[in-house]
Amino acid sequence: MRKHNGELEIDEDLKMERRTWTVQRVSWVILILIVIAALLGFTGRGGVKGINKLTKSTASQAMEVEYDRFLRDEVEGEMKITLHNLKSANPTLFFSKEFYDKVRVEEIVPEPEHTEISPDGITYTFRATKPEFIILFYTKPLHIGPLQITAKGPDNEAVTMSQFVYP
Amino acid sequence: MDTIIKGAVIYVFLLLIFRLSGKRTMYDVTVFDFVLLLIIAETTQQALLGDDFSLTNGLLLIITLIILDIIISLLKQKFKPIEKMVDGGPLIIMDKGQLLRDRMRKERIDEVDILESARDLHGLQRLDQIKYAILEKNGKITIIPEEKAS
Questions:
Q1: Per residue in A87-145, pLDDT tens?
Q2: CA distance A11 to chain B (A)
């Protein structure tokens, strides 16, 4: 064991301590950046509009989808679909296969009249009383990682949602 | 499977975060640190168990954590650099009666902390009665008093 001042036996490693101080300070900055990113919405659940909460419309604006870009594993999220200028009283909504493979639908408001699952996706048929129709989906993602879902409105125009599910 | 991965991630994360927060963070448990500790414990527990409160899950988690602890202690014993990386090392903060202010600032320690340890461990009253003060790797400050002139 090294002796400090010829009397104090101590295993002091100043080089390592200096390195640790640097690493600590750099990590503190990283931790603050993580918190700022979380406040802005980069880790899901709230945040600034446009970062986490996204709105996408089809080319004809007939369907508008509001969803969260960042989700968390097994944590419920909300998706709002607005259909404009409906021509039919029984509009259909189609979601690609990932929607039933990687997501569990907890609740749909209003409830669909009819649901049909096919190898490519799931189709919901609703009963609409007004030409403006809002549907809320409460869902829980079941898989961690990127999630890409395509939604198609009554006039078969598609909107693709790219999401990410945190562990 | 999920539980084991979660347990391992949380273990490594806590190890890293406490190491990065510095030696003093968890040693001197003031009221605030106590609250912090409680919140961290509660958050960790929820993240680890999720909504699976089964006995299997609990036992699996305990086994995982214990195994990780054994692995880390074996690694520390076998490889000294790993021990230094995980635990850190002692640091002299008062050398022959002189305060090493730069080191104290870096470790967020002041004279008050040194005096507190001096009172607690040796019943000393003044800084000039201290020869060496060492910040140990567990965050405790140990004191070697100045030898009394006879």
A1: 888 999 999 999 999 999 999 999 999 999 999 999 999 998 888 999 999 999 999 99
A2: 7
Domain boundaries, chain A: 3-40, 53-166
Torsion of CA A10, B126, B25, B38, to 10 degrees: 130
Question: What is the interface pTM, i.e. ipTM, of the complex?
Answer: 0.82
A27 Cβ under 8 Å from any chain B Cβ: yes
Give the domain range for residue B17.
2-87
On whether both B81 and B35 belong to a single domain, the answer is yes
Within a domain: B150: no
Structural domains in chain B (count): 2
The pTM of the full predicted model, rounded to 2 decimals, is 0.81
Residue B106: which CATH number? 3.30.240.20
Architecture (CATH level 2) of domain A53-166? Sandwich (2.60)
For residue A150 the two structure tokens come to 């395509």
CB contact under 8 A, A11 and B89: yes
B32 plus B105 within the same structural domain: no
To the nearest whole angstrom, how far is the Cα of B110 from the nearest Cα of chain A? 17
- Decide if B114 contacts B133 (C-beta within 8 A): yes
Angle at A37 between CA B38 and CA A58, to 5 degrees: 125
Using CA atoms, how far apart are residues A41 and A70, in angstroms rounded to an integer? 8
